[in-house]
Design a protein that fits this description.
Layout: E1 2-6, E2 23-27, E3 34-37, E4 42-46, H1 51-61, E5 65-66, H2 77-82, H3 90-93, E6 100-106, E7 112-113, H4 115-118, H5 120-126, E8 136-143, E9 145-146, E10 151-159, H6 164-174, E11 182-192, E12 199-209, H7 213-223, E13 235-237, H8 239-246, E14 268-276, H9 282-292, E15 297-303, H10 307-310, E16 326-334, H11 339-355, H12 387-398, H13 402-412
Parallel strand pairs: 1-2
Antiparallel strand pairs: 3-4, 4-8, 5-9, 6-7, 6-8, 10-12, 10-13, 11-12, 11-15, 14-16, 15-16
Family: Belongs to the oxygen-dependent FAD-linked oxidoreductase family.
GO molecular function, one term: FAD binding
InterPro entries: BBE, FAD-bd_PCMH, FAD-bd_PCMH-like_sf, FAD-bd_PCMH_sub1, FAD-bd_PCMH_sub2, Oxid_FAD_bind_N
């Protein structure tokens, strides 16, 4: 029987709780103790905790400490951290996994290990090598980061009639090169109005600046005046309030809302990912918009640069560093559960993914392990993956780090006890 590990909630393909073979699921949802040490600027986090629980606990202890993880408060840190984990502070501090300094892990022999006893190879592998491929992580120790007492956020929505195409095109040149305190992502979606014939594409420029607006406005005026940011567009708030802002909660909402593990709404979806090394021309962007008129979808452009350019691609298994301008997350949604409905939407996002081929990374066409995608590579749905099969998707997720991950897996888990359809294989 297979053993599947569920670590709090972060699994795009459901590999931690679904299988076509008999399995036992070890659910870590109750391992949710979080201990923040302000003097050491560190925290021990139970692997079943969520981002929201972590952020709320930090805020109770300090107004000037934070952590660079994702924007969704209901995401579990177990999967999020083990795949890398990026959020709106990655240009300043890198990924969540870049800031992990220790861990507690159960190996295949039932031993509880820390960084010292597991060794640096295994500690390297679990920080971005994929969820529970090497052992069962019980808790993570992270280095907390400095945040100012006031940060500045803004969201500007631009339609095609408001030059969204030219603005997105220009963003590709400036977004990854802004000061590291500034993060501007773009969420592109189709806006459905009351008129069925009036479908609009909207590009939402969502930003956080780790400082006050008096510093932000000159940076924007110098580097991206076309966006037209005004003082009245900006909101100053605390860092913990910004986590609520990016999660979509209204201003003034209690911080306790971060403790809820229930998503406000759930829908069926399929996601894919890409990395962009050269700006996409305006004509290429317009092709995306044309496809968007056919289905209810979103793409998120998340800029790199800053600290992400400074960290070696082999520092942890996550290899997508210098040279990448931004990451794309493609998503399509639907509400009906029938197979033919799902197939129609999934086929659409596959067409979008195919269309993007000339504009994204090549040899390999890279992907992000936290956006698991069973379309990538040869997937044996009986749960066994050979090295040759795994290499197809392994180099997309991990590039040159894949071989080292296989070496570690073979060393610490030779029987492939911990596995799923896209886990690191063991050579034995």
């Amino acid at each position: 029987m297979h053993v599947r590990i569920r670590g709090g909630g972060h699994d795009y393909e459901g590999l931690s709780y679904v299988s076509e073979v008999p399995f036992i699921m070890v659910d870590l949802i109750n391992l949710r103790t979080i201990n923040v040490n302000v003097n050491e600027t560190s925290a021990w986090i139970g692997t079943g905790s969520t981002n929201g629980e972590l952020y709320n606990t930090i805020a109770q202890k300090s107004k000037t400490l934070g952590f660079p993880a994702g924007v969704s408060p209901t995401v579990g840190v177990g999967g999020h951290f083990s795949g890398g984990g990026y959020g709106v502070m990655l240009r300043k501090y890198g990924l969540a996994a870049d800031n992990i300094v220790d861990a507690r892990l159960i190996d295949t022999n039932g031993r509880i290990l820390d960084r010292n006893s597991m060794g640096e190879d295994l500690f390297w592998a679990i920080r971005g090598g994929g969820g529970n491929s090497f052992g069962l992580v019980l808790a993570w120790k992270v280095k907390l980061v400095d945040v100012p007492e006031k940060v500045t956020v803004f969201t500007l929505d631009k339609t095609l009639k408001q030059n969204a195409t030219k603005l997105v095109h220009k963003w590709q040149f400036v977004g990854p090169r802004f000061h590291e305190d500034l993060f501007i992502s773009i969420l592109i979606s189709r806006l459905n109005t009351s008129d069925p014939g009036d479908k609009q594409i909207v590009a939402s420029f969502n930003s956080i600046f780790l400082g006050e607006m008096d510093r932000l406005l000159p940076i924007m005026q110098e580097n991206f005046p076309e966006l037209g940011l005004r003082r009245e567009d900006c909101i100053e708030m605390s860092w913990i309030e910004s986590t609520l802002y990016f999660a979509g909660f209204p201003r003034g909402e209690s911080h306790d809302v971060l403790l809820s593990r229930i998503q406000p709404s759930t829908r069926y979806f399929k996601a894919k990912s890409d990395f962009v090394l050269q700006p996409i021309p305006e004509g290429g962007l317009e092709g995306i918009w044309r496809l968007f008129f056919e289905d209810e979808a979103q793409v998120m452009f998340s800029p790199y640069g800053g600290r992400m350019d400074e960290i070696s691609p082999s520092a942890i298994p996550f290899p997508h560093r210098a040279g990448n301008l931004y990451n794309i997350q493609h998503m399509v949604y639907w509400d009906e559960g029938e197979d033919e409905v799902a197939e129609r939407h999934i086929n659409w996002i596959r067409r979008l993914y195919s269309y993007m081929t000339p504009f994204v990374s090549k040899f390999p066409r890279a992907a992000y392990i936290n956006y698991w995608d069973l379309d990538i590579g040869m997937n044996n749905m009986k749960g066994y993956t050979s090295f040759v099969q795994a290499k197809v998707w392994g180099i997309k997720y991990f590039n040159n780090n894949f071989d080292r991950l296989v070496y570690v897996k073979t060393k610490v888990n030779p029987s492939n006890f911990f596995r799923n359809e896209q886990s690191i294989p063991s050579l034995t």
